[in-house]
Amino acid sequence: MSSNTTPTSASPAIPTVPLGAASAFAVLAGSTVTNTGPTTITGDLGLSPGTSVTGFPPGRLTGTQHVADTIAAQAKADLTTAFDNAAARPSTATIPVELGGTTRIPGVYESPAGTFGITGVLTLDAQNNPDAVFIFKAASTLITASASHVELINGAQSSNVFWVVGSSATLGTYSVLRGTVMALASITVTTGTTVDGRTLARTAAVTLDTNTIVATTGATPPPPAPTTPKTVPLGAASAFAVLAGSTVTNTGPTTITGDLGLSPGTSVTGFPPGRLTGTQHVADTIAAQAKADLTTAFDNAAARPSTATIPVELGGTTRIPGVYESPAGTFGITGVLTLDAQNNPDAVFIFKAASTLITASASHVELINGAQSSNVFWVVGSSATLGTYSVLRGTVMALASITVTTGTTVDGRTLARTAAVTLDTNTIVATTAPDRAVPALAASVS
How far is CA 251 from CA 241, 391, 421, 423, 442, in A? Predict the structure, then answer.
């Protein structure tokens, strides 16, 4: 359950924390900076008084590296001043350790246990004030869970969010943290984590592993409008709701709207009780052409440059049109993933998973503001497994197999290049733009 903590309406506006020379740094440490993997840092990297910075390359820095020089020393001095400034602010509220699942308005927050944690989503609501400041004071530690993230709404700026940590901070794998972390000791940014802000460690190390860190300053400008991705041309594969390489196996009263194809395999079983509204093509020229066009489409989508690298867990998030990639090579959906076309019916969403796509039981994908399932593509480098009674929208193109478990609905296509498609009491409708109504979808989520 989400909860709001509201400082009194009479509370004066909270001034931001002046970072001084430290504001230019995305990463700043006292003893060492150690990186593993293709981390990307936008902003300066500094170390003082230590001298050991390792892992660049493969890490990439868009900024300047300052090691034990006067600039790094000044930044460290200003960090100490900023830390003391924020730590001395009177708290506007003392709140529980767990921040996940809550919404916070501007204020200075303190934990009575001396630690803060984030599991799931923490939402920061600026209440339409772009100068709103959020300060979280943890006398001991900040620990965020895997795939947790911080969302900013109603004008909140990551440059006005501050995490003041009396000991060390550990940011969980594939999480997203927004704001400036100022830790007295160390900061560990684990695999795949994104920081929209800064990691500033006063006395000890900053440890990185395949991260994205961007030091934001001032009001965060809206991101430049990306080039709208073009749809993925499926060719002859577009007529198929189910297409596989080795076998198609069905259990139960599955209903398929669209063609069913298999090539070069020859074994299609389970029809009936499965019902097909379309044509079955097994090891014929039409299936072979569809498989060839599927390979072309897969390669086309897989080669698209990513517009964002995002955490593994898609559930509980809203995504706008783009080409999304997971640094871990896998995507999962637990709960609801919302795709917002922003009133553009031609908006395209491509999700690239080098390894697997796994959706949880009863998860579902929602389309809003004109999004079309015919313009959603799941590019899976190995196999996809769709959880029981879930609803997936879009075309799944898997290099190997696709398993559609009991009761699952696919508003799109299941296209497996080399291996099997396995079905069990499913509804699969091959949609083409504009999407035709799929009345069975609502009934399948219960």
Answer: 17, 18, 12, 6, 22
At 257, the amino acid letter reads T
The predicted-structure confidence for 199-256, as pLDDT tens digits, reads as follows: 999 999 999 999 999 997 654 444 444 456 789 999 999 999 999 999 999 999 999 9
DSSP state of 321: S
pTM of the model: 0.55
Task: Respond yes or no on whether the N-terminal peptide bond of residue 321 is cis (omega within 30° of 0).
Answer: no
How many Cα atoms within 13 Å fall on the side-chain side of residue 49? 0
Q: Do residues 157 and 134 make contact, with C-beta atoms less than 8 angstroms apart?
A: no
How far apart are the C-alpha atoms of 323 and 308, rounded to whole Å? 7
Three-state DSSP class for residue 378: strand
Backbone angles phi, psi at 374, to 5 degrees: -70, -15
- State mean pLDDT over 107-112: 94
Residue 428, beta-bridge partner list: 256, 410
Residue 398, classed as helix, strand or coil, is strand
Candidate from 190-199, 207-216, 435-444 with smallest mean pLDDT: 435-444
CB 195 within 8 A of CB 213: yes
pLDDT tens digit string along 19-33? Answer: 999 999 999 999 999
The strand ranges marked E within 24-84 are 25-29, 32-36, 40-42, 44-47, 52-54, 60-62, 65-67
Contacts of 123 (CB under 8 A, 6+ apart): 2, 102, 103, 104, 150, 151, 152, 153
Tokens describing residue 398: 């898997």
- Which stretches of 61-165 are DSSP H helices? 70-87
Give the model's confidence band at 326: pLDDT under 50 very low, under 70 low, under 90 confident, else very high: confident
